[in-house]
Design brief:
single chain; 209 residues; mainly alpha; 53% helix
Length: 209
Amino acid sequence: MIDIEKNVDPKKKTQFNEFSQPIQFDKSKFVAYLGTLARLNVDINIDDLRHVPNELKDYIWEKLIDKYDVGDEKKNLLLSCAGKYFKDFRMKLICRYIFAHIDALDLEQIEQTIASGREPMESLPEILRNPPQKYDFISQALWYNILRSKLMPEFIEKRKAQSRRSSMNTYPHRMGYKGYLKRLDDLVKRRKKDSEEFKSDIPHDRATT
C-alpha cells in the first residue's frame, strides 16, 4: 500500500447523473485519480478487485473522499469503477509489455525451464526481465510473478484460442476512447446545436400594418 499525502485543499464538489456517472465537473481528473488510487495500491497479480482485502478498499475510499466531496452512498459503485479501471490498466500492461513480445520468446525452452524447477526468467529476452520504467511502483518480484503466470503454456494456449474466436467476430464492438458518457455529452450538444439552427431557419412573423 502506497502512502498518499493527505489533501490540504478544500474538497472538490462532485455531481452525478441518473446513471451515477460523474457530470458537471472535471470528471476526467476524477476518473484518473480514482484509477490511480487502484493502480498504485492493488497488486498487479490480482485480476479482480473483489479479491482485494476490505482494508485496502477502505483505504482507497478514504483517499478518494479526502479529495472529493462524495457521499457514502456512492462507495460501492465507485469502488466497482476503480476495479474496472484497474482491470483495464492490468490488461493494457500485459498486452503492451508482455504479449507484444511473445513472438520473440522460446516457449518450449521456457516450459522446459519451469519443468526443471529453475528460474524461468533466465529464458527471457532482456526486454521482458524488468518492469516498464514508467510504472516504477511495480517491484521486480511482482513483475516476475505476473510473467510466470502469463507465460505458462496453458495460459498461452488459452490466449491463442481467445484470439482465434475474436478474429471470427464479424461486427466487433468499438466504442472508442470517449466512452458512453462523453458520447452522451456530444449527443446532447449536437442536438442543442441542431435545435438552435432549426429555430434560426424559421422565418419570423412580420407585423401587419
